[in-house]
Design goal:
The structure holds 2 protein chains of 2 kinds. In chain A, the strands form 7 sheets. Chain A has a 5-stranded parallel sheet with strand order 3-2-1-7-19, with no helix packed on it. In chain A, strands 9-16-10-11-12 form a 5-stranded parallel sheet. Chain A has helices spanning 15-27, 50-54, 132-142, 155-166, 187-198, 246-250, 289-303, 374-383, 391-394, 398-407, and strands at residues 6-11, 32-37, 75-77, 82-86, 91-94, 99-101, 104-107, 111-113, 126-128, 147-151, 170-174, 202-205, 210-214, 221-224, 229-231, 234-237, 241-243, 259-261, 272-274, 279-281, 317-319, 327-331, 340-346, 351-358, 361-368. Chain A has 3 domains: 6-112 and 241-303, FAD/NAD(P)-binding domain (3-Layer(bba) Sandwich), CATH 3.50.50; 126-237, 3-Layer(bba) Sandwich (FAD/NAD(P)-binding domain), CATH 3.50.50; 326-407, Enolase-like, domain 1. In chain A, helix 1 packs parallel to helix 7. Chain A contains 10 helices and 25 strands. Chain B is an alpha/beta fold. Chain B folds into 6 domains: 5-53, N-terminal domain of TfIIb (Single Sheet), CATH 2.20.25.90; 64-130 and 331-507, 3-Layer(aba) Sandwich (Rossmann fold); 133-325, Dimethylsulfoxide Reductase, domain 2, CATH 3.40.228.10; 583-700, Barwin-like endoglucanases, CATH 2.40.40; 704-812, no CATH class; 828-885, BFD-like [2Fe-2S]-binding domain (Arc Repressor Mutant, subunit A), CATH 1.10.10. In chain B, the strands form 8 sheets. A 7-stranded mixed sheet of chain B has the order 5-4-16-15-14-6-7, sandwiched between helices. Chain B has a 6-stranded mixed barrel with strand order 21-25-22-24-23-26. Chain B is globular. Classes of the chains: A alpha/beta, B alpha/beta. Chains A and B meet through helix 7, strand 23, helix 8, helix 9 and helix 10 of A and strand 30 and helix 28 of B.
Chain lengths: 408, 886
């Protein structure tokens, strides 16, 4: 090779890295000499499938992600976290002392689960649920545990709870707010989802504020601030994640809630880009996979030399990955004086749909039990299309609108 | 499967022969009887749908006293004891019977005999007073008898047919079919005289939309014109008729020429001239007339104005000519034959004839024969209101709906110490008001005879079992007679015995002096009665096969056997329009409905055309009164009000409105048109004036419209406006009102049955829908929407026929539209792009997708988070296997 290739270093070997490698393979497979550094001892895997893995519905082999394989000469250095970043020297140093120089660097360090500082939160039997190691530990624990409590009734907590329930132990979810997934669901959908989870062996306690985890060495229970106590020999914190900004911060990059990036996914250091859950873009921090795909595409384009490539932020939608539960939520779904709500319910079939319309445009959608039109609604929300002409049948889904249009 | 039974249709006076083949499960298939001379196999839409009206829904099947089920013995004892007590304490005139053209002749004969001959009161009238009394009065004035001179064949033999006050196409459809069939082979001119442009006007030669009530003037004008043309052969006419000169002179005074006639009738002179010309040109003229003539305070005069023309021109009693009264009810004629009218005695014999009184007394062995005419229907109920009637027995009719000023009639019923009804139906506003309810047989169960408009007696035969404890009317009345001590005189063992007595009375000391004579059938054996072929009376020794026409011999049934022309001057309607009530309301029928809906209201087919009460007005009036087509309108007269949906149509003359007579409290919130009708009656016939009611029209505020479809009939609907109609295996409720749609939802939701519910709410769009599913099948479907939105419920309505809804149907249920083109995508596999399992499998098979990447390109599945890729792989494997196996 006549020219020395630029050195591209990726810190983080998760789903963002995997996707970025795939995008690079498509756009500029030969441009960079790529090295990927991972804290976990695994090639990129599908973190979203950790819940079904926990539930025994998937095998670890199912988690394998293969897009990065397309960039076959990328080197992986795994199981060795980066502890220091020297931007002047353009060198990353790992825990083991290995040093990796770069011309361009992409941070995709992801996020860390929040572990609150509650009495008893350091007891044995208290877990988080973020990675393969957490999952393995939880699966181990289910062989002896009888009562599990998941603290946090958001997406991840509910998936974890369902996974644990499938392992045959009693599971309760303790949620601080008055209904589960309160940011994605309205109270009615929350109640329906709760009923659906309860048929899967997951008890839900709403308005539950954990005061302490009980036990001497091992967790034995949970006490709420209202005095209620729950038996728990397995406790899982699922109250959210924080962008992993430790390295960026120590390297002096501009950091807010996440690593601040511009529309070119570039940090305060022009040589350093960042994508995924660790970044903050236009004030938004994303904890879902879809924005990551969009960011990876833009980042790959920028790295390929397309300076005009811009990331404008993502419209996110939420889908719960629990077998038998179809749930979709997107946009602004909370009641407000200036919005029109359209609701469809078929309780026996477990179907609930709510659309929120503002100024003749779809602003939000919640679909429970029948989520087949989710992508279409998300498109309508993203595109801010005028829906007045088919507003009356909008809630019944694209099939019926297409019929009406075909009939005209 | 039982054998086919020949019987007669229970609807209009055409009296079509019907072949009924019971299915052994309470239903029957229905066909026209090709051998019946009324219809030769034809049936109208109502007749052909008879099979859909045989259900037990809404039937009265057990005797009731005070709302509680009772035994027949208790009920009959109670009725007879009440009658006995009333007679003892207040005299025989404290008891009254109100009968019906729906009764069979045999069922009619027995109460007439009991009341007039044995209770000894003349308090007996019939709902025929509301439809045929003016024809009866006109006939008797002209002919000395209630004689229909011609026959249906005359309509086909005529060169000119005049329809006056008759919407033949809707009200006597099979005769209309016969007329049209004849017109297809021969040039028969048709003139329609009707304030409305009706279906009967289609394809006719002239429509005279005259001012309501001006008929006498029009026919006076015609008579005067015919005289001017020299078409009245005075010498010949004076051979058999009196009053020719005076009548023609009166006509000339009233309507001297075309111009005057046209002006008085609100017609174009050219049209009037054409009418006169056509009548002058054609000798073979049949004038068909019905309620537009009869239901008027000058109804008798209208009838005589028509008959005058026919008598004066000799156009009567000969093929293809004659005045022809068309009866509304299946046995109006039979009722007139037994004499069950307040001003008749029996068998075409009159109170005014001392010989007749003596004859009937002897024939019946009557202990206390009534000796003078009694109160006609409207007067009879005035006596009820005044408390003079202590016991009122109503049989097979619904006066709470059908009498004028029906709100006042309800008050009278409420005030009456004892109201007894015998009826087949429980769904009847009148039955609601009765203390003693006696279950009578319905069509298909009862057995006897009826007489149609051309004097043809036909058998109505039973082909269904007697349901519950229902009994024949003749049996019920005979049992009461027996309890009153008249067992010997009412010891009938069946309808044949009654018919023989009725026929014998008609022939008793007759010798050709009375038109109605069935002496040829007075000894008919039971078997021959059962097999009786349709026959036109008179049936005598001289005419054993019956008689087609009367008066060919110019011999009439007056005392001097001469016909009478009646000099006439037009009278105004009783209550003309004025400033406060500026619109003339006319009432009548819908094509597919009958009377108060309790039979046709059961048929989805018959209900389709007119599921709601509608009032029709001219566009100019609608605009002036700010009334919207399809909106709600309140009609108010000085006597009552109603709310109906407005239909704006050119068929209606400016200044007039039309509303159908069918709706009642069992089928609509507030749409009894006869509540508006005034009580003025024809002085001779006592018939009310349903065709000229002064009203005002006011728009009703309508914020929402609702449709409720329910498998079982909802009760207690609470809305300012509603109407209920049957659908296929469900009922349809249409409702509208003011207030918020949320209030409407709250009110209407209380009607919904329990079950699994689906709901759709769009509060800003003011749209709400819900459905209830019970045992997998659709039980109810409710839609509330803004009045501006249209709604088609055909698809949803059809779902009631299904035992179980498919997932696709359930999904489309609240859309309200067919989901036929919707393909089920199956459970979601790719949650990111919402791609279902079935959709993926179809794509794999159809497009031969080889791998996960190909699925991603085609459907997007697997290109999001990738969680579904393992499942996609297994689907690829499975689907390929299926393909190989296939």
């Amino acid at each position: 090779m006549a020219l020395e290739r630029e050195r591209l270093l990726l810190i983080g070997a998760g789903m963002a890295a995997n996707r970025l490698l795939g995008e690079l393979a498509d756009r500029c497979p030969d441009r960079y000499d790529v090295t990927v550094l991972g804290a976990e001892p695994h090639r990129p895997y599908n973190r979203i499938l950790l819940s079904p893995l926990l539930g025994g519905e998937k095998h670890v082999d199912d988690l394998v992600l293969t897009e990065s394989d397309a960039l076959s000469d990328a080197r992986f250095h795994l199981g060795d976290a980066v502890v220091q970043l020297d931007r002047d020297q353009r060198v990353a140093v790992t825990e083991s002392g290995a040093r990796f120089s770069y011309d361009r660097l992409v941070l995709c360090t992801g996020s860390n689960p929040i572990r609150p500082n509650l009495p008893g939160s350091d007891l044995a039997g208290v877990h988080t649920f973020r990675d393969r190691a957490d999952t393995d530990a939880l699966i181990d624990a289910t062989t002896t545990a009888r009562h599990a409590v998941v603290i946090g009734g958001g997406l991840l907590g509910l998936e974890a709870a369902c996974g644990l329930a499938r392992r045959g132990i009693k599971v309760a979810v303790v949620h601080l707010m008055n209904w589960i997934m309160e940011r994605q669901l309205d109270p009615a959908a929350g109640a329906l989802l709760r009923a659906s989870l309860e048929t899967r062996g997951v008890d839900v306690i709403t308005g539950g504020d954990t005061e302490a985890i009980l036990g001497d060495e091992r967790a034995t229970g949970l006490r709420l601030k209202d005095g209620r106590e729950l038996p728990a020999d397995l406790v899982v914190f699922a109250i959210g994640v924080r962008p992993n900004v430790t390295l960026a911060k120590s390297a002096g990059l501009t950091v807010g809630r996440g690593i601040i990036v511009d529309d070119g996914l570039t940090t305060s250091d022009p040589a350093i880009l960042a994508i995924g859950e660790c970044v903050e873009h236009r004030g938004a921090v994303y904890g879902l996979v879809a924005p990551l795909w969009e960011q990876a595409a833009v980042t790959a384009a920028v790295l390929a030399g397309d300076d005009d490539s811009r990331y404008g932020g993502s419209w996110v939608s939420t889908s719960l990955k629990v077998t038998g539960v179809e749930l979709f939520s997107a946009g602004d779904i909370q009641a407000a004086p200036d919005v029109e709500e359209i609701v469809f319910e078929d309780r026996e079939a477990g179907i609930y749909r709510k659309l929120v319309v503002r100024n003749g445009r779809l602003a939000g959608a919640v679909l429970l039990g029948d989520a087949r039109d989710g992508a279409w609604y998300l498109d309508l929300i993203r595109s801010a299309a005028n829906i007045e002409s088919f507003r009356n049948d909008l809630i019944f889904g694209r099939d019926f609108i297409a019929m009406a249009e075909a009939a005209e | 499967m039982t054998d086919t039974v020949r019987t007669t249709c229970p609807y209009c006076g055409v009296g079509c022969g019907v072949l009924a083949t019971p299915d052994g499960k309470g239903g029957a298939t229905i066909a026209g009887d090709p051998d019946h001379p009324a219809n030769y196999g034809r049936l109208c839409v109502k007749g052909s749908a008879l099979g859909e009206t045989l259900s037990m829904e809404g039937r009265l099947l057990h005797p009731e006293i005070g709302g509680r089920q009772a035994s027949w013995a208790q009920a009959l004892d109670s009725v007879s004891e009440s009658i006995r007590t009333a007679i003892a304490e207040h005299g025989p005139n404290s008891v009254a019977f109100y009968l019906s053209g729906q009764l069979l002749t045999e069922d009619y004969y027995v109460p007439n005999k009991l009341m007039k001959g044995f209770i000894g009161s003349n308090n007996l009238d019939t709902n025929s007073r509301l439809c045929m009394a003016s024809s009866v009065a006109g006939h008797r004035r002209a002919f000395g008898s209630d004689t229909v001179p011609g026959c249906y064949e005359d309509i086909e033999l005529a060169d000119l047919v005049i329809l006056t006050g008759s919407n033949l196409a809707w009200c006597h459809p099979v005769l209309h079919q016969r007329l049209e069939a004849a017109r297809a082979t021969r040039n028969i001119k048709v003139i329609v005289i009707d304030p409305r442009r009706t279906a009967s006007c289609v394809g006719t030669d002239l429509h005279l939309a005259l001012t309501p009530g001006s008929d006498v003037t029009l026919f006076n004008g015609l008579l005067a014109d015919l005289d001017r043309r020299g078409l009245i052969d005075r010498e010949a006419v004076e051979d058999y008729a009196d009053g020719v000169a005076e009548t023609v002179a009166a006509a000339k005074r009233a309507a001297p020429d075309v111009q005057t006639t046209a002006k008085l009738c609100g017609l174009a002179p050219g049209d009037v001239a054409q009418f006169f010309e056509l009548v002058a040109q054609h000798e073979k003229v049949v004038t068909l007339y019905s309620q537009g003539v009869n239901q008027s305070t000058s109804g008798s005069d209208k009838v005589n104005a028509i008959i005058n023309v026919h008598l004066a021109t000799g156009r009567i009693g000969r093929p293809g000519m004659g005045p022809f009264s068309l009866t509304g009810q299946p046995n109006a004629m039979g009722g007139r034959e037994v004499g069950a009218l307040a001003n008749q005695l029996a068998a075409h014999m009159d109170y005014g004839d001392a010989g007749a009184l003596d004859r009937v007394r002897r024939f019946w062995k009557a202990p206390s024969l009534a000796t003078g005419a009694g109160p006609k229907a409207v007067q009879l109920f005035e006596r009820v209101a005044r408390g003079e009637i202590r016991v009122l027995w109503i049989m097979a009719t619904n006066p709470a709906v059908s009498l004028p000023r029906s709100d006042a009639i309800r008050q009278a019923l409420e005030a009456c110490p004892l109201v007894i009804v015998s009826d087949a139906m429980r769904w009847s506003d009148t039955v609601e008001h009765a203390y003693i309810r006696l279950p009578a047989l319905a069509w298909g169960e009862k057995d006897g005879t009826v007489t149609n408009s051309e004097r043809r007696i036909s058998r109505q035969r039973s082909f269904l079992p007697q349901p519950g404890e229902a009994r024949p009317d003749w049996w019920i009345v005979s049992e009461v007679a027996r309890r009153l001590g008249f067992g010997d005189e009412f010891a009938y063992d069946g309808p044949a015995a009654i018919f023989r007595e009725h026929a014998a009375l008609s022939g008793f000391e007759n010798d050709g002096s009375r038109d109605f004579d069935l002496s040829g059938l007075a000894t008919v054996p039971d078997q021959a009665y059962d097999a009786l072929a349709p026959v036109q009376w008179p049936v005598t020794a001289a005419a054993p096969e019956g008689t087609k026409r009367f008066f060919a011999d110019r011999r009439f049934f007056t005392s001097d056997h001469r016909a009478k022309l009646v000099p006439l001057a037009a009278r105004k309607v009783a209550h003309p329009v004025d400033r406060d009530y500026p619109i003339t309301l006319l009432t009548g029928r819908e094509r597919d409905h009958w009377h108060t809906l309790n039979r046709t209201g059961k048929s989805a087919r018959l209900t389709l055309r007119a599921p709601e009460p509608v009032v029709a007005v001219n566009p100019a009036d609608a605009q002036r009164l700010h009334l919207d087509d399809g909106g709600l309108v309140k009609l108010q007269s000085r006597w009552g009000g109603m709310i109906a949906r407005l239909r704006v149509t050119d068929d209606q003359n400016p200044g007039t409105a039309f509303a159908p007579m069918h709706w009642n409290d069992h089928f609509s919130a507030y749409a009894r048109v006869n509540a508006l009708a005034h009580p003025a009656v024809d002085p001779l016939s006592g018939q009310p004036e349903f065709k000229s009611i002064p009203v005002r029209l006011v728009p009703i505020k309508r914020d929402w419209e609702a449709v409720l479809l329910m498998r079982s009939r909802p009760v207690g609907i609470d809305a300012p406006y509603w109407a209920i109609a049957s659908g296929a295996e469900h009922w349809r409720v249409f409702a509208a009102g003011d207030g918020t749609p949320e209030q409407a939802l709250d009110q209407l939701s209380t009607l919904l049955p329990t079950g699994n519910s689906l709901s759709f709410r769009d509060p800003v769009g003011k749209r709400f829908r819900s459905a209830v599913i019970a045992d997998g099948a659709l039980a109810a479907w409710l839609d509330i929407r803004p009045p501006s939105m249209q709604l088609d419920t055909d698809w949803v309505g059809a779902l009631f026929a299904k035992d179980r809804l498919s997932p696709e149907e359930r999904r489309a249920l609240l859309v309200g539209r067919a989901g036929a083109v919707t393909v089920d995508d199956g459970p979601i596999v790719c949650a990111c792009h919402h791609v279902g399992r079935s959709k993926i499998c179809r794509a794999i098979a159809k497009d031969s997708l080889a791998d996960v990447r190909a699925i991603g390109v085609a459907l997007g599945a697997g290109t999001g988070c990738g969680s579904c890729i393992p499942e996609l792989r297994s689907l690829l494997a499975e689907t390929t296997k299926v393909e190989v196996a296939a």
